[in-house]
Amino acid sequence: MRDTVAALLSTESFDCVHDMSGIWWRYSAEVEEPVLATLHLPRSFYPSGTFDLCPENVFFNCVSRTEMITFGELPRMLDPVPNGIALDRFMAEPPLPRERRKYLLWLGRICEEKGPHYALDVAFAAEEKMILAGTVYPFLYHQKFYAREVLPRIRRSRQSAKVVSEPSFGEKLSLLRNAKALMITSTAPETSSMVAMEAAACGTPVIALDSGAIREVMRESVTGWIGSDLEHLRSLLPLISEINPDDCVRYAEQHYGAATMARRYEECYRRLLRAEPKPVSLNA
Question: What is the Cα–Cα distance from 92 to 90, expressed in whole angstroms?
């Protein structure tokens, strides 16, 4: 990546560089252009010393205010820009009515910090059918977790739970549209939640653990409910029926659009080019 970007900058003219990888910005001193580095991960996920030396031409931003607070000492921090999604991909059809939805859904990267095993426990305790959809990446600790915590629960479920491995976009869309609710049971501090946005755009409520920036993404009683622990999540499941699928879609239209995200990044670029980062309040 380092050589590819350098080669591109040497042959074409750009006003600034936007690094969404969270890695390349460390080489910003090698280029003249101002660089915006968007940080997507929880602070604890970055190795110690990552931010000890920040080139003078690099500016930072985060995807939520909750995340930004954890990076309070970084220089040249711009306003957070919330993630957005391509709404039209999820809203091609009106949401299904509640009575046609038959199961709970967990969707994402199948690993310990995302808590899929906790979602299964909540569903079993509530005697609800459950679909676990996602990918187990080829890392030994992910595979060991899946074998130790997920597979035994699936086997004990007596066919009330099943796994859909590596769903295509079409499969993911169908799973979201037909679910009673999407469960988010991450124990890591979420910096955003694209899947919560996608669920709302499909008219599907979310039942989520209170983790990181989840309260910035969701609107309680409109797009779903937020619980303090697993027992609280289970107690919230009957409230799914109070969420109106059309309200979820309207909220998604108003808050989750990729076009809104793009406009906010354009403003970040203008501030970079003026080299006048707007001060942000970490207490707002």
Answer: 6
